[in-house]
Model the fold of this input.
Amino acid sequence: MDGTDPVDRPDPADGPDPADGPDPEPGGLSERDRAVLALERRGWPGPGAKERAVRERLGISPTRYYQLLNALLDDPRALEHDPVTVNRLRRVRQERRMRR
Done:
């Protein structure tokens, strides 16, 4: 043990993750969430280019990107921000679920 009382240690669940970027505007999406939707709005020539852009522009792994994107599809603020992209991705997700 490191000698500190577990009660005194900060719990990561208590606050925002610093990697999440700046706090969102009241009632809005964070800058990172908007960037995720913007990347998804673009067309990509192949999967490699998109994954490279995720790493370079957002500084996160593609796995984390898709986790964030999936959560955004269920967020009403994302739908309000970019209804065309969110509805398209919801349809794609639903089609994949139905094929399973």
In short: The chain has a mean pLDDT of 81. Residues 39 and 53 are 8 Å apart (CA to CA).
